[in-house]
Amino acid sequence: MVKIEIDKEACVGCASCVEDCPNDVYEMDDDWKTKVVKEEDCMACLSCHEICPAQAMEHKDIHVAKRLYIDRDVNDVISKIV
């Protein structure tokens, strides 16, 4: 299982990871910092890691052969074009 650590001091509270995660692994806490709520649902796509402007998260116990970054806005644009 993937182990996710959030650096609360580095987190800027933008909620990009919350919005971008396809499995809803994250929520914002009362201090408007990211918290992991469903770590077991993480599929290690690293979308959150790629989109985090502060690079405030670390994923452990994964072996990534290919980054599977998901940009929902780009996917929406592509689907309209095709």
Automatic annotation (TrEMBL):
Domain 4Fe-4S ferredoxin-type: 2-31, 33-62
Domain of life: Archaea
Listed GO MF terms: 4 iron, 4 sulfur cluster binding; metal ion binding; oxidoreductase activity
InterPro entries with a match to the protein in the record: 4Fe4S_Fe-S-bd, 4Fe4S_Fe_S_CS, Fe-S_Ferredoxin
UniProt KW keywords: 4Fe-4S, Electron transport, Iron, Iron-sulfur, Metal-binding, Repeat, Transport
PROSITE patterns: 4FE4S_FER_1 (PS00198), 4FE4S_FER_2 (PS51379)
Stored Gene3D superfamilies: 3.30.70.20
One Pfam family hit: Fer4_10
Name used for this protein in its record: Ferredoxin
Species of origin: Methanobacterium congolense
